[in-house]
């Protein structure tokens, strides 16, 4: 029953991931339309600023999510430390935790910088775009970010349930 339940949950997660990927493709199409509009209306250096911001948006959000996920895994492993855990493993986990914590703080600084750049880009676009186009741009940025987060969350859940299913299947003769 448990195996069946895990497989069912995995199917649901895979279907949900397909929906999110479909939304991401639609979002990318809207992004290309927006890019064409910005290219047409803005000066070349302003367009470059826009493109750098959009490219960095995905990189910084993905980096933050990845580091947060890795840090959470290390923290979970640290919670499982007991009297039987050898000193070398404890030391390794503590070092990885410190490193990942520093890296995540650096990534948060990058995100703050990215947020400042977004305000600059928004100001530039406000000179050229209609209110509706500016609203579309803001929705695009917000949707792109939320889809990246949702996609990463689903990938983590799928990975977790696949590991659970694999472990369960191995444990049954």
TrEMBL record:
State the similarity comment: Belongs to the shroom family.
Q: Name one GO cellular component term.
A: apical plasma membrane
Coiled-coil segments? 90-120, 144-171
Q: Does the keyword Coiled coil apply?
A: yes
Q: Name one GO biological process term.
A: actin filament organization
Tell me yes or no: is Acyltransferase among this UniProt entry's keywords.
no
What gene codes for this chain? Answer: Shroom1_0
Q: Where in the cell is it found?
A: Cytoplasm, Cytoskeleton
* Entry protein name: SHRM1 protein
């Amino acid at each position: 029953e448990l195996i069946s339940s895990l497989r069912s949950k995995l199917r649901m997660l895979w279907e949900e991931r397909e929906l999110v990927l479909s939304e991401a493709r639609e979002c990318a199409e809207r992004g290309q339309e927006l890019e064409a509009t910005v290219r047409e209306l803005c000066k070349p250096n302003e367009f470059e600023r826009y493109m750098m911001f959009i490219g960095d948006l995905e990189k910084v959000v993905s980096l933050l999510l990845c580091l947060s996920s890795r840090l959470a895994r290390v923290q979970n492993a640290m919670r499982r430390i007991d009297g039987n855990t050898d000193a070398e493993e404890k030391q390794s986990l503590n070092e990885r935790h410190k490193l990942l914590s520093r890296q995540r703080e650096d990534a948060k600084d990058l995100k703050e910088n990215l947020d400042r750049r977004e305000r600059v880009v928004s100001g530039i676009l406000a000179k050229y775009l209609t209110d509706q186009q500016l609203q579309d741009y803001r929705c695009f940025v917000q949707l792109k970010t939320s889809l990246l987060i949702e996609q990463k969350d689903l990938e983590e859940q799928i990975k977790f349930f696949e590991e659970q299913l694999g472990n369960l299947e191995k444990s049954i003769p």
